[in-house]
């Protein structure tokens, strides 16, 4: 297998006390920016592709871009499906050579999430592909809900233990107050809950929605034992800002390469700063 399964990357991270960054990509510029950053810092890397990204770029395009970037870099890189919600998309990625898949049944009732995740694990493990499951719901930043509702959506530590045991997932994504997109104000992460989950679950833990979490919060999460951290929004924001400012200063330029060049550099800088924060420099 060209790509490295998450299990291998994350078990090393767990043993050595750092986290591997999973950065979302959906095009050539982002893929190259992410891999360039990892290469400069000699870091392991997870290239994350959502179902939306696969629909946008085409599964073969995404795979080939990742493959070439991985080959040229010589780094241990995983190609990972982010938030797969059906067996179809999971199987499609496995057939096309992805080394890791996330099955996200977090919106389903517990028993259904367990049964589906278990099925994905049985199939994926036959061909050496790692599986990430999710328990607890990530509440959107825009969701106007009460504190009690927010807590009810978080991962229950005892249930997490049962979920991992019954499904056999290789990693578990947790909900501890984290959310996708930028946070309105300071994110309120429940680190006590994270510690309780860590104490009950033996597999690597995953923190989604890490854009906008202050560096101190990330360091604390890694110290407690988060082993994979997902970043998307901050890379997108760097892309947007670089393109907007380039075009504001150079409205006459029509060459996409000139317009997108600064964006690649800006995205790469964000990825580099995250890799440094996660502690995976030199761990390739
Ligand atoms: P952000 O967009 O908040 O960085 O979250 C990324 C993520 O968790 C992808 O699964």
From TrEMBL:
<dbReference type="GO" id="GO:0008270">
    <property type="term" value="F:zinc ion binding"/>
</dbReference>
<feature type="binding site">
    <location>
        <begin position="230"/>
        <end position="233"/>
    </location>
    <ligand>
        <name>dihydroxyacetone phosphate</name>
    </ligand>
</feature>
<dbReference type="GO" id="GO:0006096">
    <property type="term" value="P:glycolytic process"/>
</dbReference>
<feature type="binding site">
    <location>
        <begin position="209"/>
        <end position="211"/>
    </location>
    <ligand>
        <name>dihydroxyacetone phosphate</name>
    </ligand>
</feature>
<feature type="active site" description="Proton donor">
    <location>
        <position position="82"/>
    </location>
</feature>
<dbReference type="Pfam" id="PF01116">
    <property type="entry name" value="F_bP_aldolase"/>
</dbReference>
<dbReference type="InterPro" id="IPR013785">
    <property type="entry name" value="Aldolase_TIM"/>
</dbReference>
<dbReference type="GO" id="GO:0004332">
    <property type="term" value="F:fructose-bisphosphate aldolase activity"/>
</dbReference>
<feature type="binding site">
    <location>
        <position position="134"/>
    </location>
    <ligand>
        <name>Zn(2+) 2</name>
    </ligand>
</feature>
<dbReference type="InterPro" id="IPR050246">
    <property type="entry name" value="Class_II_FBP_aldolase"/>
</dbReference>
<dbReference type="InterPro" id="IPR011289">
    <property type="entry name" value="Fruc_bis_ald_class-2"/>
</dbReference>
<protein>
    <submittedName>
        <fullName>Fructose-bisphosphate aldolase, class II</fullName>
    </submittedName>
</protein>
<feature type="binding site">
    <location>
        <position position="180"/>
    </location>
    <ligand>
        <name>Zn(2+) 1</name>
    </ligand>
</feature>
<dbReference type="InterPro" id="IPR000771">
    <property type="entry name" value="FBA_II"/>
</dbReference>
<feature type="binding site">
    <location>
        <position position="181"/>
    </location>
    <ligand>
        <name>dihydroxyacetone phosphate</name>
    </ligand>
</feature>
<keyword id="KW-0456">Lyase</keyword>
<feature type="binding site">
    <location>
        <position position="83"/>
    </location>
    <ligand>
        <name>Zn(2+) 1</name>
    </ligand>
</feature>
<feature type="binding site">
    <location>
        <position position="208"/>
    </location>
    <ligand>
        <name>Zn(2+) 1</name>
    </ligand>
</feature>
<keyword id="KW-0862">Zinc</keyword>
<keyword id="KW-0479">Metal-binding</keyword>
<feature type="binding site">
    <location>
        <position position="104"/>
    </location>
    <ligand>
        <name>Zn(2+) 2</name>
    </ligand>
</feature>
<dbReference type="GO" id="GO:0030388">
    <property type="term" value="P:fructose 1,6-bisphosphate metabolic process"/>
</dbReference>
